[in-house]
Specification:
The chain has 104 residues and is of the alpha+beta class. It has two helices and five strands. The protein is globular.
Length: 104
Amino acid sequence: MIDFYENPPKTKKQIRDYLVSWLQPSQDTTPIKIKGEFFIQEKGFRRAFYSHGVFRNTSTNEYIWYVCQDNDFSWDGFGEKKYSSFESMLEDTIDNYYIQWKLD
């Protein structure tokens, strides 16, 4: 696992390498009902006070990237962006982090 604080990423490729190294298969793949639909959490990781998860809709197979802060058990914002594939979700997440972290 790559240490973000010791070696912060500077490129989109480095962000990809970090995310891929951090994402681990979910231990529990029992479908959960969120906002009336069923999802499986396929992958995830926790950093600092935030949990990051990759969810897949069991009926549409769309992917969702979701980040929540510890002790925030609401699903506000969940599913605002849906992706047809894991790869398209990962690319958009990388692009968003690149902008948020002001790497350009």
